Amino acid sequence: MHSGNRLAAVDLGSNSFRLEIGRIEHGEFQRTEYLKETVRQGAGLDEGRNLTVAAMQAGWDCLARFGERLAGFKPSEVRAVATQTLREARNREEFLLRANQVLGFPIDVISGREEARLIYQGVAHMLPDSTERRLVIDIGGRSTELILGQGRSPKVMESFRVGSIAWSKRYFPDGQFTRKSFEIAEIAATAVLDEAFDAYHPDNWDTAYGSAGTVGAIGDVLVAAGWSAGKITSDGLDWILDKLVTAQSVERLRLPGMREDRKAIIGGGVSVMRSVFNLLGIDSMEWASGGLRHGLICDLLGDTGYTGDLRINSVNRLARKFGVDTVHGQRVGKVASLLFSQLCGQGKRPADPEFARQVRKLHWAAELHEIGSHISHSDYHKHGAYILDNADAMGFSLSELHRLSLLVLGHRGKLRKVEAGLEDRELVSQLLCLRLAVILCHARRDPDLTGIHLKSLDSERALMRLSCRADWADAYPQSAHLLREEGLAWEKTPWQLELKGL
């Protein structure tokens, strides 16, 4: 559990960017500051799914302001994530390169199911302890998350590509409201959400809860009109629809409780909400105060309802699902970690958090390096990389999964296929140690590592040496042959592996 006295969460949503800051008092997080800016980045994706220059600049400007407020925070005190818009954006790396700099902290692009997990976690944390079966709904700018859970534990999580910005842009592009346009928008939303019907059937939950901006915008209007506070009903949605159709356009819309920044996307939000209500048979939905940001805070606090690192659970789940030989994976991981410690651990204490982080991720890659064998032994490293690049794994960001996929892709064969990653010194060090470990464990038994040592011969670690004792090559001729082949493979890269004793 986090032991500091302040924490911060940054949520880069499709409609708004949000910053939540607070202090830990008596083991609980207490908000001290909340900043929100309507960036509407989700509307800045062009037809090629690239963020426009204007959309990127608006995001950078907002994050620079957040970054100024976060000055002095430690990396362990801040978590920043981005959701559907950056999941979709083809030029997200261009945006993130500068975004990370101006914010001052790394931004993780998370998968839809990871977003759903965090949302449920945040909602559940703000609700009283209960055994009720909960349905949590979060309608964002470009995605909608549906989660079933009980207590603090989410059971079923899914993200659908339908949201208030996307639907407003597509079905109310000129800001005009007609009953026909709402009918079309609701039919289209239902077509996307239809597969959720069986899993989220009314028999599977007791109470529905709504989280985030769309729920808040609709709830504010209903309360201002005299409807009961704290819930949204199907009758209330029908009333709002009538008001929007009567107004005919965004410009003519005058509704007490409706914020100006919400008017342009209220049509999409209402149509998606009505679709969810109708599809899942919801009559009334409670308005939940928790959400994604609070889920991030729970992660920072360690108050997740899970034991240990969620990523460990995800690695174990993937290994089981794809029938990985876990004994061999652990063996390779142990050897790879030892070599990595030899190569990069000089002058570092084992307790160094950064070093421990690198070793942990290398070990996960080793545990999963044969995950693609479930599909086909031929080119199994390519299948494994594809699985990891497209997996939903709780606790992992998309960039973390991609890094694991690169290690799995490059753990055997030519290095040209991971050429772009060879500019990253940390990745190269991890990749070399993984490849050497796979070779040393090729007989699928614990290798003889007596006298074997891997070290860097220069400060940049561009030249590396693997040393073996005098009789090792004679005792293990096949391993020695494979290691000599490995040395030749690295000669075709900017990095060199020198072999001593072979």
Describe the structure.
With 502 residues, the chain is α/β, with parallel strands linked by helices. Helix content is 46%, strand content 17%. The chain folds into three domains: 6-110, Nucleotidyltransferase, domain 5 (2-Layer Sandwich); 113-298, 2-Layer Sandwich (Nucleotidyltransferase, domain 5), CATH 3.30.420; 310-500, Hypothetical protein af1432. The strands form three sheets. A six-stranded mixed beta sheet has the order 8-7-6-9-11-10, with helices on both faces. Strands 3-2-1-4-5 form a five-stranded mixed beta sheet, sandwiched between helices. It has a three-stranded mixed beta sheet with strand order 12-13-14. β2 (16-25) and β3 form a beta hairpin. α1 packs parallel to α3. It is elongated, with a radius of gyration of 26 Å. The model has no long low-confidence stretch (mean pLDDT 91).
Explain briefly what this protein structure is:
With 502 residues, this protein is an alpha/beta fold. It has 19 helices and 14 strands.
Index terms:
six-stranded mixed sheet; 502 residues; 14 strands; Nucleotidyltransferase, domain 5; single chain; 19 helices; Hypothetical protein af1432; alpha/beta
Structural class: alpha/beta
The CATH superfamily of the largest domain is identified as Hypothetical protein af1432
Any idea of the CATH topology of the largest domain?
A: Hypothetical protein af1432
Q: State the strand order across the main sheet.
A: 8-7-6-9-11-10
Please, how many helices? 19
Q: What is the number of E strands? A: 14
Strand content: 15-25%
> Strand count, sense and closure of the main sheet?
6 strands, mixed
Mean model confidence by pLDDT: 91
CATH class of the largest domain: Mainly Alpha
Number of domains: 3
Instruction: Report the radius of gyration as a whole number of Å.
Output: 26 Å
